[in-house]
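Slide 14.
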Amino acid sequence: MIVNASVDDASECARITMAHARTFSLASKLLPSAKRRAAYALYAFCRIADDLVDQADHDNVAELSVQLTAYRTQLQAALDGRPSGPIFREVAWVASEFDVCPAPLFELLDGVRRDLEAHTYDTWVDLERYCEGVASSVGEMCTYVFGVPAGPAMLTQAIQYARTLGTAMQLTNILRDVGEDAQRGRCYLPAEDMARFGLTPQDVLARGADLARHRGWAPLMAYEVGRARALYSAAMPGIALLDHDAQRCAAACANGYAGILVAIEAQGYDTISTRARIGRLARVGILWNAWRYRATAPDLSALGHGPRIVWEPNAVAANTDSLIRLA
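Slide 15: predicted structure.
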């Protein structure tokens, strides 16, 4: 329920969202007010946790681990009816109002904690597990808020599609932020994938802007962009399972983030020295297209339990161009 005392709390979550998430802020305007307020609360909750671990360096990991544990304790208290502070008061409201399962909220905290420990990933399976924790969990949270009119039986399928979309969006973030992450001593690109193009995670961490000129860099990035697009394609049918008043927001998020892949390609895959951004006109176009978005009625018999993607093995190829097709 919404009470007047919560107005300032909601405003704080909205402020955090609008300060840090251009695409999500725009997309959320397509939601009805209660769902928009809930979306802002969930974003603020996730953002504070993410910002906490982004402060990590070699000297303060133990201290930040303690702070993240305290954040988890605050979450549990909020879900138990004892919230403290504007964000957790809003999270408690969201959980009650939209019957949000607590599991993805805690999954998110477990996921971001990995950034205190792991700084490289050996395989796509390893990275996918990380993406599940920090982003698929968010997709699941949002599914409860967005609503699934077909009822509990279809909720499971909708969550699986939303989790796939979360993985696509997180992989997009990773491809966009290679340079920024390297400055923090992190390389998320799977070492197994990099090896096929003559690169290693250490190259990302040490070579700086010169890396973008390596003969294997553009083919590697094209390969990973192809993987991300496959994930978006697999996730899109799930939008039709959502309440009509949330479909346009979900479409705007999906298409907005997918647009970052176009920006990455446009700058020659150099995300080492600069961050790929979607221009203002492009963002307006995404919002306009989302406003006109109408999902086709889903074929429920064909949806199964959600998307399933089978990746071809990372076989060694004589010509790196052929590797791009494997994603």
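Speaker note: Confidence is low (pLDDT under 50) at residues 1-5, 315-327.
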